[in-house]
Automatic annotation (TrEMBL):
Source organism per UniProt: Flagellimonas flava
Record-annotated RNA polymerase sigma-70 region domain positions: 21-87
Molecular function as annotated in GO: DNA binding; sigma factor activity
Pfam families per the UniProt record, alphabetical: Sigma70_r2, Sigma70_r4_2
Cross-referenced InterPro entries: RNA_pol_sigma-70-like (IPR039425), RNA_pol_sigma-70_dom (IPR014284), RNA_pol_sigma70_r2 (IPR007627), RNA_pol_sigma70_r4_t2 (IPR013249), RNA_pol_sigma_r2 (IPR013325), RNA_pol_sigma_r3/r4-like (IPR013324), WH-like_DNA-bd_sf (IPR036388)
PANTHER family named among the record's database cross-references: RNA POLYMERASE ECF-TYPE SIGMA FACTO, RNA POLYMERASE SIGMA-70 FACTOR ECF SUBFAMILY
Gene3D superfamilies named among the record's database cross-references: 1.10.1740.10, Winged helix-like DNA-binding domain superfamily/Winged helix DNA-binding domain (1.10.10.10)
Source organism, top-level taxon: Bacteria
RNA polymerase sigma factor 70 region 4 type domain ranges (all copies): 114-162
Keyword line: Sigma factor, Transcription, Transcription regulation
UniProt-listed GO biological process terms: DNA-templated transcription initiation
Keyword Transcription: yes
Stored SUPFAM superfamilies: Sigma2 domain of RNA polymerase sigma factors, Sigma3 and sigma4 domains of RNA polymerase sigma factors
Name of this protein: RNA polymerase sigma-70 factor, ECF subfamily
Length: 176
């Protein structure tokens, strides 16, 4: 079954098509959920919630643009909405003047270790870091998504980078 037929069958509420769509995209969307979540369990919950939203909004997909892009956007928005509801994102009035660059060339850290460090970040820092660094959103877009100012977005990103740099430097000291 091709993607267009699969989508049409999902729009009709056919369970077999929904199961196939889940199998086809759950890995990609779980990876997205994992980077925005504190742990695997929370990522699994976010994945489930995202698919529930995708299936409930399937009629809104009109075959304009990438289907994968559409479901990724729904996933990010579902996760962010959940955090906003649970009041994990508090407005911070801090301003960190300059962006902090992390020189990863001289640091030895595995991808799984780095993902662990990102997951350990406080929610507002982790989400801002992921949106900006990993997903390429601008500070303006992030501030609109999170209901904060662009200054808060920049500040949260700088704090996230600072925390990650400290953890990576500590890891490198312990390895040496």
């Amino acid at each position: 079954m091709d993607l267009e037929e699969l989508i049409h069958n999902c729009k009709k509420g056919k369970r077999q098509a929904q199961a196939e769509l889940y199998r086809k995209y759950s890995g990609i969307l779980f990876g997205m959920c994992l980077k925005y979540s504190r742990n695997r369990t929370e990522a699994e919950d976010n994945l489930h919630d995202s698919f529930m939203t995708i299936f409930s909004k399937m009629d809104q997909y009109n075959f304009n643009g990438s289907f994968e892009g559409w479901i990724k956007r729904i996933t990010v928005n579902t996760v962010l909405q959940k955090f906003r509801k649970e009041q994990y994102l508090n407005v911070v009035s801090e301003n960190v003047g300059e962006e902090i660059e992390v020189d990863t060339e001289q640091m030895d850290v595995s991808l799984s270790t780095l993902l662990g460090y990102i997951q350990e970040l406080p929610n507002k820092y982790r989400i801002t870091f992921n949106l900006y660094v990993l997903d390429g959103y601008s500070h303006k877009e992030i501030s609109e998504m999170l209901g904060t100012s662009t200054g808060t977005s920049k500040s949260n990103l700088a704090r996230a980078k600072m925390i990650l740099r400290e953890k990576i430097e500590k890891e490198n000291i312990n390895i040496a």
